[in-house]
Amino acid sequence: TQLLEQSPQFLSIQEGENLTVYCNSSSVFSSLQWYRQEPGEGPVLLVTVVTGGEVKKLKRLTFQFGDARKDSSLHITAAQPGDTGLYLCAGEEETGGTSYGKLTFGQGTILTVHP
Amino acid sequence: EAQVTQNPRYLITVTGKKLTVTCSQNMNHEYMSWYRQDPGLGLRQIYYSMNVEVTDKGDVPEGYKVSRKEKRNFPLILESPSPNQTSLYFCASSWTSGSREQFFGPGTRLTVL
To answer: B35-51: per-residue pLDDT in tens?
Structure first.
């Protein structure tokens, strides 16, 4: 099983600050997904990155896939209390040509943004 | 509305009493999966199914069973629950190709006494 190390596990910041969450592995992934989960709900997909070096932006959120497709980061600019939640990365294993690759989730980052 | 539903949402039971958590999706997804979520451990896959009658073990299958007799349903069965199966359980579905976005159900909070 491929492992995804997510850091930090906890992040508590003030409104307006910037932050970065990291997702690292020694394995190569064909794609990497970022999810956000709020209390009492299931995770919801934010973005999928597929190409090494790819950068995607979603308003104040910037997602990057490492060149070697082993790591990813999520950067939030000017965090707001509404960004509070659990952020999860999930990597899809390379399958050598088949259509299915197992998804492996990181441990998650609990983000709290204080007003 | 496209969704994944799970029932029950909350369940308190005792050791050894068989239980089933149901999962249903209305998006015609081939792939369905069960995860458990525990503090500090993230989401760990229990079982998955690529399509009807095709199931396989995930990372933590011990103590669980699944079946996939219909495309839309993927129940999780605990034949003899134990306290270490106390957890938050999520069912998810997706296509088997393309974006592979996982659509998650709302979760089932299980407590085994």
So the answer is: 999 988 889 999 999 89
Reading the block at residue A27, the tokens are 């394995």
pLDDT tens per residue across span A6-21: 999 999 999 999 999 9
Which residue in the set B41, B50, B104 is minimally distant from A42, CB to CB?
B104
Question: Is pLDDT of A108 > 90?
Answer: yes
Cβ-based neighbours of A77, under 8 Å, separated by 6 or more: A18, A60, A61, A62
With CA atoms as reference, report the closest residue to A56 among A67, A44, A64: A64
- On the CB side of B47, CA atoms within 13 Å amount to 20
DSSP letters spanning B71-90: SSB--EEESS--GGG-EEEE
Q: Residue A99 and residue B44: Cβ atoms within 8 Å?
A: no
CA of B40 vs chain A CAs: smallest distance (Å): 6
Please name the member of A6, A31, A42 whose beta carbon is closest to the beta carbon of B90.
A42
CA angle B5, A10, B60 (to 5 degrees): 45
